[in-house]
Amino acid sequence: MYFHTVWRTTMAAESETYIIRGGIEGRERLRLLARVLRPTTLDLFQRVGVRPGMSCLDVGCGGGDVCADLARLVGPTGRVVGVDIDGIKVDLARREAAAQGISNVEFRVADVTTADIGEQFDFVFVRFVLTHLRAPAGGLASIRHAIRPGGIVTVVDIDFRGHFCHPDNRAFSRYVEWYTETGIRRGADPNIGPRLPSP
Predict the structure, then answer these.
(1) pLDDT digits 0-9 by tens, 26-43
(2) What is the side-by-side strand order in the sheet with 2-8?
(3) pLDDT for res 198
(4) Most confident range, picked from 28-37, 41-50, 107-116
(5) SS3 labels along 42-80
(6) Which residues make beta-bridge pairs with 127?
(7) Less crowded by CB within 10 Å, the N or C end of the chain?
(8) Is 116's pLDDT higher than 50?
(9) Integer Cα distance of 75 and 54 in angstroms
(10) How many CA atoms lie within 13 A of 11 on its CB side?
(11) Are 55 and 122 in contact (CB under 8 A)?
(12) Omega into 167 within 30° of 0, i.e. cis?
């Protein structure tokens, strides 16, 4: 189960808490996830007002699937920057965007909790990142600096308790318990989604 919230303003994850495999294997997992979530993600972008000419930031961009969709939506007069802590995934994202002929996207290796993006955007998208942070408020503070006055921040995150299996399967239930406990022990929050602040 996942939740999202959108903030309209008036003015990356910590590697030691990230408990899911990164690198090439992580890229393939994110590719599948992006494919499954693409219809609802595109609908969300339409509802929040992503349009041609906008500058967009994708925090925790992974392999760049969402960046590619944003780049198509904002068109040649817009631009997209994707940031992620996983250099392997960022390199793969660069190569895949080049192979698709997408020229209005840039990828950077950065940790949202410590990096200064150095510019401001019309739209910032953050999906499944806060759940991995020891101090999500600090990450959100960095994100706030990256949004220009009147810009839009959209955050989507999880509630791991929403995982279920029917019929009940003890192995699956144990997986949910282990993931949750591992996240908590590392200082992350596997169930942050329902507590995302509302606008």
Answers:
(1) 778 788 888 999 999 999
(2) 2-8, 147-158, 121-127, 55-59, 79-84, 105-109
(3) 57
(4) 41-50
(5) HHHHHHHCCCCCCEEEEECCCCCHHHHHHHHHHCCCCEE
(6) 156
(7) C
(8) yes
(9) 9
(10) 4
(11) yes
(12) yes
Residues facing residue 79 across a β-bridge: 55
Give me the chain's average pLDDT, please: 85
Secondary-structure percent of the chain, ordered helix, strand, coil, rounded to 5: 40, 20, 35
Kindly report the CATH class assigned to 2-195: alpha beta
Is the Cβ–Cβ distance between 193 and 3 less than 8 Å?
yes
Whose tokens are 């950077």? That residue is: 108
The residue with tokens 């990096």 is 115
Whole-angstrom distance, CA of residue 107 vs CA of residue 58:
9
CA proximity to 107, closest of 147, 78, 65 = 65
What are 123-142's pLDDT values in tens digits?
999 998 888 888 888 888 88
CA 167 to chain CA mean position, Å:
31
